[in-house]
Amino acid sequence: MLQIKNLTVSIGEKEILHDISTTFEKGKIYAIMGPNGSGKSTLASAIMGHPLFTISKDSKILFGNEEIQEEEAHLRSKRGIFLTFQAPLTLSGINVFQLMRVALEGKLDPLALKNKIKDLAKKLKIKEELISRALNDGFSGGEKKKMEVLQAAVIEPAFLMLDEIDTGVDIDSLKTIAEFLAEMKSKDRTIVIITHYNRILKYLMPDEVVVIIDGHIKQKGSADLSQKIESEGYGWIQ
Amino acid sequence: MDTMTNKNTSDNLQFDYKYGFSMPDTSVIKIDKGISEDVVRYISSVKNEPQWMTDLRVKSYKIFLEKSMPDWGADLSHIDFDNITYFARATNEQLSSWEDLPEEIKNTYDRIGVPEAERNFLAGVSAQYDSEVVYESVKKELDKVGVIFCDMDTAVQKYPDIVQEYFSTLIPPHDNKFAALNTAAWSGGSFVYVPKGVEVKLPLQAYFRINSERFGQFERTLIVAEEDSSVHYIEGCTAPIYTTDSLHAAVVEIFIKPRAKVRYTTVQNWSNNVYNLVTKRAKAEDHALMEWIDCNIGSKVTMKYPSVYLVGPYARGEVLSIAYAGAGQHQDAGAKMLHMAPHTSSRIISKSISKAGGRTSYRGLITVTPEATDAKVYVSCDALLLDEESRSDTYPYMKIKNSEVEVQHEATVEKIGEEKIFFLMSRGIDKASAEGMLVNGFIEPVTKEIPLEYSVELNRLIHLEMAGSVG
What we know:
The complex is a heterodimer.
Chain A: E1 2-11, E2 14-24, E3 29-33, H1 40-48, E4 54-55, E5 60-63, E6 66-67, H2 73-79, E7 81-84, H3 96-104, H4 110-123, H5 129-132, H6 141-155, E8 159-163, H7 171-184, E9 190-194, E10 208-213, E11 216-221, H8 223-232
Parallel strand pairs in A: 3-9, 3-10, 7-8, 8-9
Antiparallel strand pairs in A: 1-2, 1-4, 1-5, 5-6, 10-11
Chain B: E1 4-5, E2 29-30, H1 37-46, H2 51-66, E3 88-89, H3 103-112, H4 116-122, H5 132-145, E4 148-151, H6 152-158, H7 160-166, H8 177-185, E5 190-194, E6 199-200, E7 204-205, E8 220-225, E9 230-236, E10 247-248, E11 251-256, E12 261-268, E13 275-284, E14 289-296, E15 301-304, E16 307-310, E17 316-325, E18 330-339, E19 345-354, E20 359-368, E21 375-385, E22 391-400, E23 405-415, H9 418-425, H10 431-447, H11 452-466
Parallel strand pairs in B: 5-8, 7-9, 8-11, 9-12, 10-13, 11-13, 12-14, 13-15, 13-16, 14-17, 15-18, 16-18, 17-19, 18-20, 19-21, 20-22, 21-23
Antiparallel strand pairs in B: 1-6, 2-3, 4-5
Helix pairs in contact in B: 1-2, 2-8, 6-7, 9-10, 10-11
């Protein structure tokens, strides 16, 4: 589904990811783990097409069989790539309904969209008033993350990246989010979970765990790897 | 009667509206460029005005000559007073054709979907008047309750007593150079008189009050709201008004009697060769409310500071404004509030956006006199910069001469961050639309006060500006 080849990513003069290659297959779940500052979020941002990151000339990102590394983020989104943000920003004067209306470009009529958002909000235990409030304005950490997941569910991406969806979230919210995401699992959807913890992976059993340290992929393995990391840390991986 | 209520009928205010909405005279009236006492007298005689108006024009012309240019705001050094036509009356013939319009104006009309007939009107191409039918029904309702709504020239002829009582008393010619010029050379503009106790529920739109001098450069508007009345007046439209004239110097005077309410909404989108220098002032008596909602998108230079003189106890004044400055534009806008009586309150909310090297300035003056005990003042001005080249300044002046006053002032400058744009783009929204959404979100506190059809167009226009497709 999505393949990265020789991906080297820099911000300004600083190189963060060094020549990494990996493949994400259709219908599978991936966990990306690694210490803080190792480049996990950078990888997700680069796949999404963040303009602040530059990629080297021989870096390639393939979606299906097409190279997308030159495409702007909104076009990648149209292809079905979605990223939930680690720290979702506040948008003054724009609520989630307005945002989704523009994002869907009229694919769903406004009333149907409103109902869909309401239903999803109920499932995610998001207070209904938050739907009409400016996005993330005064939201708690958990509410922000839930709202990210809600947007993903509205857009129904084929390639869903979750950047630390489980941090800054209380236990109950985490359970709600994880159970909701487990339902989003499908044979047509790839889910990439960037996380420090094993908790969420209990609901979303990864087919593969990818460990990034200092901008390199240092280890790949099955779900057991995440458990080992949680108990022993990263020190043993070299 | 569902659109208005009337607690006080006054039969002497019945009149024939058709007068103010007739098609222009077939004769062509042209005068040479430049202004002189002869030109001013000529304008007055062509309009067959009473002596007092002729005298006022001549006096104002002399004051205009004496007054110096304001040197504290935007750069006005390129205004050439000798190269302006001070009076023109349209004819039945088309003065120019759609084809003659600049490409960007035509494109904009296309993109915001203005119907052909309206475009021609907006572009000054045609004097056709297609809204007459719509207006007729509104007019009947107004007639019934004695509301007068006509153009200023008609008012001078038909209601000289009311006009003379108020005209130029709130903004006298010596107020500033451009007020003097307007008083000397004015043509067109609106006259609104709302009798005691009448609440006009439907907004009065200058849009419907179309005649040959509709978008005059020197419009003159006078609104009188008698006790316990209320009215909402809307001027302008969001499609760019194309004019070859480079100076728009309007004057708006509003008188609000005890417990009356007036809201005046402007959505201005002049083409980018226009100096838009407008003096707007309202006088609010006790428990009266004045609300200015002022959106400035177009023009080369705008200097406009709607003001409210709060002369009666518990009078309230509000200015909600939006200014957008793109490449080569300077929007110097703000508000003035004069608290001259106890328990008066004012609120100013200013939102400005600068893009592509555009410049916005907020300039505000709050005066609280010793009489204005327990006055409340709230000022909030937020500036949004879309790039590094753009500029925004804030000049808040406060003269507080009373110690028992509550003053709140907030000012923010914000840059549209890459992060927010990336966030929106990651949801499938292209960059220009993302910027547009963020800008519209930023001005939402003001746009939500504007009638829906205007705010929708305003939002659309801002999207176009973000896409860089509006000239």
